[in-house]
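=== RUN LOG ===
request id: a7f3
mode: sequence -> structure
chains: 1
length: 182
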Amino acid sequence: MKSFRIVFSAMLIMLFMACSDDENREVTVVDAQKAYNEAKGTYAGVVLDENVPSKVYVTIGDDLTIKYLPVTPLLSRFFSGTELDEAVASVKGPTFSAPTVDMVLVGSLMYVSMEPTDWMFTAKVGGVEYRVSALLSSVLCYSRAYDKISVSINVDELFCEGQKADLSSNSISWLIDEATRQ
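=== RESULT ===
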C-alpha cells in the first residue's frame, strides 16, 4: 500500500507541473462550489482487503462517507488466527465519515482533502468487546471528464483498548481507484 501512496503523490506532482498558465488561473468560490456540486453522489468501487477486492461505496455530500471500508488491516495489528476471523466477522457495515477541508481544481480534476478524523468501531472476540479507534486522513480525486473518483486513505494512528499499534515501519493505507457513480 506504501507504493500506492507514492504513486498517487507522484501523479499529483506531475499533474501540477503539467498545468498550463490557463489552468492555474485563480479559482473562484463559485467555480469551486460548482465543481463540488457536480461530484456529489454515491460511487461504487473496490479496495483490496488481504489482496482480495472488497466492494465499497463512497458518498460525496456535506462530508465524505465511505461504507464497508475493510477492518482486517486494522484488527490484524491486535489479533491473529481465529481471533482475527472472529473480530472481523463481528464488525458489521463499518462506515467512515470525514468533513472536507481543502479543494484544488487542476484542469478537469478536483482534489479534495479531508480533515483527519477518528474512526471508531467495536469488535468482539470470545464474547469480549474491544474498542478500536484509528485516525484517518484522506484525499479524494474527482475526474470531471470521466465522472469517476479515486480515494487515498492513510491510517495515522491506531489504538485498541488503549494499546497503540506501531505504524512506523508498516503503515496501513487503502486506495479506492476509479469508483463509478451509482
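=== NOTES ===
The beta strands are 41-49, 52-60, 63-67, 95-106, 109-114, 117-125, 128-143, 148-160, 163-164, 173-181.
DSSP finds four helices and ten strands in the chain.
=== END ===
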